[in-house]
Amino acid sequence: MEFTPSAEFGVGEGPRDIGLCFVGDGFVAGYGDPKALGWVSRVVGRTSTREADLTAYNLGVRNDSSADVMHRWRTECGLRWAGRSERRLVVGVGARDVPAGVSTARSRLNLANVLDEAATSGIATFVVGPTPTLDAEVNARIEVLSVAQADVCDRRNVPFVDCFRPLVQHDQWLSDLSAGDGTHPGQAGYGLIAWLVLHYGWQRWLQLQD
């Protein structure tokens, strides 16, 4: 997977000062993880920064829909990016849209609006897709949403991590959900999401790959 930044985004010469914001729902916040790490802290903890100065901010809010994220990312991320020479945004939305009855078309548009506005503002983006549950009917809708999000990202050359297909029949994932609420994972499940993110071009997107 190759990341092509917008015309406005670029890594300048000299020391890199990266402001890395994660926005999304309870999965971004790490809800359900007894270690209180979620996938975000695991990913940041395993990110090789080399000579870059990286500051990460977890702005996940439980029960946020894609519309909620679309409306709040500007103001919340803007405060964290103040003074940073390099702005990067990781988006994880959609899981709440399904039980809330938000149409796939609307979810798709909300994500597209975030990515398009970020691109025109010189902000590099990375998207982490929704995860499966123990409910087959809900999963059918999440799969459609995941495919739609992947298409939105592909059209914009934005990296997209498919968390649905690798996990929908993964024994450890299913076991973790069974021990919890059937939707949010525990420590093992968040570790699996982190693994997927780290192996879907994360370091390359950050342009920190050795």
Note down, in words, how this protein is organized.
The structure is a single chain. This protein has a 5-stranded parallel beta sheet with strand order 2-1-3-4-5, sandwiched between helices. It has 210 residues and is α/β, with parallel strands linked by helices. It is built from 10 helices and 5 strands. The two termini are 17 Å apart. Strand 4 (124-128), helix 6 and strand 5 (160-161) form a beta-alpha-beta unit.
Number of domains: 1
The DSSP helix count reads: 10
Distance between the termini: 17 Å
Radius of gyration: 16 Å
- Fraction of residues in H or I helices: 40-55%
Structural class: alpha/beta
CATH class: Alpha Beta
Topology pattern, helix = H, strand = E: EHHEHEHHEHEHHHH
How much of the sequence is in beta strands?
5-15%
Please give the number of β-strands: 5
Q: What is the CATH architecture assignment?
A: 3-Layer(aba) Sandwich
By CATH, the superfamily comes out as SGNH hydrolase
Summarize this structure as a short list of keywords or feature phrases.
210 residues, alpha/beta, Rossmann fold, 5 strands, 47% helix, 14% strand, disordered N terminus
Brief account:
With 210 residues, the chain is an alpha/beta fold.
Q: Helix and strand layout, with pairings?
A:
Elements lengths: L16 E8 L1 H4 L8 H8 L7 E8 L5 H16 L4 E7 L4 H4 L3 H17 L3 E5 L7 H20 L4 E2 L2 H4 L3 H8 L8 H12 L3 H5 L4
Parallel strand pairs: 1-2, 1-3, 3-4, 4-5
